[in-house]
Known about the structure:
Helix content of chain C: 55-70%
Number of helices of chain A: 12
Largest interface: A-C, 51 and 41 residues
Strand content of chain C: under 5%
Low-confidence stretches of chain A: none
Largest sheet of chain A: 6 strands, mixed
Strand content of chain A: 25-35%
Order of helices and strands of chain C: HHEEHHHHHHHHH
Structural class of chain C: mainly alpha
Mean pLDDT of chain A: 84
CATH architecture of the largest domain in chain A: 3-Layer(aba) Sandwich
Distance between the termini of chain C: 43 Å
Number of helices of chain C: 11
Strand order of the largest sheet of chain A: 5-6-7-3-8-9
Strand order of the largest sheet of chain C: 1-2
Number of domains of chain C: 1
Oligomer: heterotrimer
Radius of gyration of chain C: 22 Å
Amino acid sequence: MTAITVDRLHKTYLVxxxxxxxxAAVGALVRRRRREVHAVTDVGFxxxxxxxxxxxxxxxxxxxxxxxxLSGLLHxxxxxxxxxxxVPWERDRRYLGQMALxxxxxxxxxxxxxxxDSYKLNQAVFRIPDADFKARVEELSExxxxxxxxRKPVRNLSLGERMKCEIAGSLLHAPQVLFxxxxxxxxxxAMQRRIRSFVAEYNRRTGACVMLTSHYMADVEALxxxxxxIHHGRLLFDGALEELVHRFAGDxxxxxxxxxxxxxxxxxxxxxxxxxxxxxxxxxxxxRVPKAETPRVAARLLxxxxxxxxxxxxxxxxxxxxxxxxxxxxEVDGG
Amino acid sequence: xxxxRLDADWTSGPRQAPGEGGLAGLVRHDLRIxxxxxxxxxxxxxxxxxxxxxxxxxxxITLATQVLGLSVVFGQTTDxxxxxxxxxxxxxxVHFLIGGVLGLVVRPSMEAMMEGIRxxxxxxxxxxxxDSQLLASVQVVRPQALVDVLVGLGVVVFGMxxxxxSLSVVDVVLSLLTLLCGLVVVYSFILALSTxxxxxxxxxxxxxxxxxxxxxxxxxxxxxxxxxxxxxLTFAVPVAFAVTVPSEALTGRLTYTSALSAAGLALLFFAAxxxxxxxxxxxYTGASA
Amino acid sequence: xxxxxxxPVSGRPDFSKVSFGALRRYYVGEFGASTANNLAYxxxxxxxxxxxxxQPMVSIVVWRTVAGPAGEVNGFTSAEFVxxxxxxxxxxxxxxxxxxxxxEWRIRTGAMSPLLLRPIHPIHKDVCDNLSYKVxxxxxxxxxxxxxxxxxxxxxxxIGVVQVLxxxxxxxxxxxxxxxxxxxxxxxxFWLTKVSALNNLYFSLFLFLSGSFxxxxxxxxxxxxxxxxSPFPWIVSFPVEVALGRRTGAEVWVGYLAQLGWxxxxxxxxxxxxxxxxxxxxxxxx
Lengths: 335, 289, 286
């Protein structure tokens, strides 16, 4: 049985529209124009139990709208979805009882009371038996190093500490499905790493299925074997992370280390690399060439220069993603 | 970008530094600031049509409530401590008018200032080359409150035609003067209250007390209150001079003593609040430490 | 070693059934949390209590002036006006809810969403918050009530044990009527982006029809008739007059029944409107 099934999901908003300036403002007094915004168009995918899936897209791509539909906060305009056998927007309490939505910018814990008291409230809301509650708080506080924080009021915690407590609080009822919307936003690198490894550990221990959106590619690389990319509300890619890089990266980088103090002559180097821009380093250089030409250029370099080492690299995932969005933006704007 | 020439002249400063050119120059500069903020506010008014409509609806409901209240009271009596129904209608109009001016610029600006002090954005106000008190007092304009000002004016005029007090030109001038004094007193009071935000970070609720006192007690002539309350409402929380004294003037029952004391108190309150403002600023910037 | 803990438990609680045990535990926890919260902001709570005193105080002054030192208005002497408004203040404090403003904020800022994600009806949280605020506010309101009565020379000769004992159920029922009605009204924020005009209108009506501005006996005939067709007299006027000993015997029982009737009406409304409100929210989002 799949954990999440989404089929031809659409969400359309009607938003009032107005141009700037006084005249437009006066005009709007008389007549208001509305425009349809297609936040999500024809999105479909399935996720198996235990999978961790990265959900990528630039701001306004429709990620949060999709997550809100899957967590039952939004009704789609059309299309279907089932999560753990429930239609999320029917908001059956049995579904809400085994799901968690965590948003990096929202605080669900009570501001002025100690963290543990907020947890006890969640215990009551989610009807968690005492023994389970105790064991889970213990385990979560061990995994996230919360021991010191549980007795402090939330307002006295730093941003990162608050996020850790927030995440732990959302997992006390052992949700089977976890929607993480930008869980590491605004946190320092060490805290990001900690939360990342925690999510991986939670997934390993409970077999819960996780959908994660993040602007930090490190999150995605560390956690998700599979990514789903949407842009302008449409599904762009669904598959393995390496596959994404492989399919969309147009270039590869060739790093060359030279054997000795070779007087690198730009004029001589030019023809070898087909005139692509060369970046000098202390002991050699690197050059970016189109994927198809990589073998040929590499062979020429090996033949023509005293090379001690030559490495061909895929470009970093960030730049691939950037390329994907840029390419499709141009397509959409142009069409 | 390189090679593009900048056409604007970036080298010359303002022809005259703000504050130079004597008092007249200062006032001109201040008035320009006031005008700019007000016109920005009017632009906003057009932007938020629904807010404007809402404030008309709200003003009508509030006015109807108060008139109904009056009619309930005057269903049982013909005079309330020497005030007839139309005298009180004039007073309600003055209350609307003063409340409108406060809501137009004073209260929203003070709320923004306290928020700014809490968040640290108040520093942006301090680095501008203009009078800090003025900037702080006019920084937010909520033009919907103009509705209250207009309703207030209408009610005052309507009430006055029914009161049939014969007002001479001097009386009218005096009335307007007491109205102005009332505004100054209340503005100074609110400014001083808000200035305390430099010491106590959470103060918005103190303004709520003033708002409640002004809203509930200010709608009745201060003369009906028993002794100690009347003193509180006159000097401690100066609702009396803001509403009752101008209403007395407009219904032809002003004494020269109260006109003079209104003027004196306005000057006193203004000077005191301005002194307190700069005292607080010196502490805030650490200049006195 | 502790691997077991976060594993999905075999038997998940059945959220489709109401569990009173779970609900009781929730109430205890939420009430404690709200109380901690209110105590943290005790300054703000104190100030709200001060503003609660102002309106009845002004009403006392106005009606004492109308009645004059010796006279009376439709059966109320000036000393009786004082007691009437002092008790009105207590009833108003205990029945007042602020959710009609809070819902607008919740929806605008998205604070509604976490409440909707929990497998429990959001009204329970509001009940707890309200009760806690009221209990804490009593620390200020009760002495203020006594001070008003003493300071303005109120007449308490009609108040005895019987009056207090019949007042208490009327008060509790009044709290329930007003809470449910205004909670339903607060749901209007799901449809309207600005609720200030509606709230303003509601409170104007409430002021006159509930007997907060003046005892119903003092109001013009037309207003009084309108009031009797509305739920408002059962929220303020009825409990206050029971406390003053102005309603006795069968009148009290009829009053309790009327209050129960309005509670029933409000509950039905709540069920219908809440379901629609959530549907609207999930169509538009935030």
